[in-house]
Write a structure and sequence with these properties.
Layout (H helix, E strand, L loop, with lengths): L2 H29 L8 H29 L1 H20 L4 H14 L2 H12 L5 H26 L6 H20 L9 H7 L4 H7 L2 H31 L4 H30 L1 H18 L9 H28 L6 H34 L6 H38 L9
Helix pairs in contact: 1-5, 1-6, 1-7, 1-11, 2-3, 2-4, 2-5, 2-8, 2-14, 3-4, 3-5, 3-7, 5-6, 5-14, 6-11, 6-13, 10-13, 10-14, 10-15, 11-12, 11-13, 12-13, 12-15, 14-15
Length: 421
């Protein structure tokens, strides 16, 4: 495994995810503040608009990276992210908020290209470890992003977005000078994409194994996005936290995830295999989502931190394992395409998740206006939101158990589609 380009990709994704992490605790306060006076429902729609654009453009960017190379697609997408954050930070109307998130969503499909890059420079045996590095970059982004967003919000609620714009531009500059290209003229992906042979990719997507992986991944991200898009309002209402406090909570979750995905996932995969880690992660994830709404001032911060640890561990075990399984399901010629489809599935889930949250919690909170006399009704909406996410994760758990039972021998013996082609 070539560590030098992996390190560059790690830094690239890490900086990119800092910007993504900044949005999570700050955006609800930014949209509902004195400048816009928008309803909480708009928050859910803003999260969803970003993901809709990712859904549409991620597979396109992934396939373009097969044809034109990973490096130019990553560079263009980072410049688009910088533009999106700049518009968001300078917004004076709600439509500018949506424009910023839409532009960022269009260019935000670069994770699939980064994953395809990892697939280019790793062997099938080390694939989960390589994907774990991207997962660790996600985790570290959740450490520093929300924390930075919370701290910078003290100087102005729009400051975190302007900082993220500058960071994305710096990221693009770094990538331009130091990242080598992996899709050479001889690379199977270039010839496949150049001849327009999408048929191979579509045939791969018909495989039962890949269909199971993408189905489980979809359910994971739906539950994850319900949690992330609702958590700030939950802590604001239940604990009285602001963006600064919630940012540090997301940072804590990110630390645990980064430790597992950055340092332990490779050894865990070698010992237990990806499928077993997905099963265990789904169970931990479901448990944490069920317990979250039972926490509050009466249980103390320690209980909330313990639940956050379960959530972080479950996600850290499952996400890189699922992306590794998806990558192993196709050959070298389809890596950009299948990673694009995988992230497009994630984007669709990030549309569905916030919309579910919007229906279950944002609308209820908007109607209540945080009226403490309606405390019981709001508590009901909070429980329903997180328990819906828990039920979705239980479904993923059941699919993972069946999938592990049906296909564990194939993956254990290395008989994975055309991964060696």
């Amino acid at each position: 495994m070539n560590r030098s380009p992996l390190l560059v990709i790690f830094v690239t994704v890490f900086i990119d995810l800092i910007g993504f992490g900044i949005v999570i605790p700050v955006l609800p306060y930014y949209v509902e503040g004195t400048r816009f006076h928008a309803s909480p429902r708009v928050v859910g729609l803003l999260f969803a608009s970003y993901s809709i654009m990712q859904l549409l453009f991620t597979p396109i960017l992934g396939r373009w990276s097969d044809r034109y190379g990973r490096r130019p697609i990553l560079l263009i997408s980072l410049l688009g992210t910088a533009a999106g954050f700049l518009i968001l930070g300078l917004a004076t109307t709600v439509w500018m908020l949506f424009a910023g998130r839409i532009i960022d969503g269009i260019s935000g499909g670069n994770i699939s290209t980064a994953q395809a890059y990892v697939a280019d420079v790793t062997t099938p045996e080390n694939r989960a470890k390589g994907m774990g590095m991207i997962g660790a970059a996600f985790g570290l982004g959740f450490i520093f992003g929300p924390a930075i967003g919370g701290v910078l919000s003290r100087w102005g609620i729009e400051v975190p977005f302007l900082f993220a714009a500058g960071l994305a531009f710096a990221n693009a500059t770094l990538l331009y000078f130091v990242l080598p290209e992996t899709v050479t003229k001889e690379h199977p992906a270039r010839s496949s994409a150049a001849t327009g042979r999408w048929t191979q990719l579509f045939e791969a997507l018909k495989q039962q194994r890949l269909a199971f992986v993408l189905s489980i991944y979809f359910l994971f991200i739906v539950a994850f996005s319900i949690m992330t898009s609702s958590f700030a309002l939950f802590t604001m209402f239940r604990f009285g936290y602001d963006a600064h406090d919630t940012g540090w909570l997301f940072g804590y979750v990110g630390v645990i995830g980064a430790i597992i995905q950055g340092g332990l996932i490779g050894r865990l995969v070698k010992r237990f295999g990806e499928l077993q880690l997905v099963v265990a992660g789904a169970l931990l994830f479901a448990t944490s989502l069920f317990v979250i709404p039972l926490t509050g001032p009466h249980t103390g911060l320690i209980t909330l931190l313990l639940v956050g640890a379960l959530f972080a561990i479950g996600n850290a075990l499952s996400t890189p394992s699922l992306t590794s399984l998806a990558s192993k399901s196709v050959g070298r010629a389809e890596q950009g395409g299948v990673m694009g489809v995988t992230q497009s599935v994630a984007s669709l889930a990030r549309v569905v998740g916030p919309l579910i949250a919007s229906a279950l919690i944002y609308s209820a909170v908007a109607q209540l206006g945080f009226d403490r006399q309606m405390h019981n009704m709001s508590d009901h909406s909070l429980r329903l939101t997180f328990w819906t996410a828990a039920a979705i994760m239980l479904l993923a758990f059941g699919l993972a158990i069946y999938f592990a039972y049906a296909h564990s021998a194939e993956y254990r013996e290395g008989e994975v589609a055309t991964a060696g082609s």
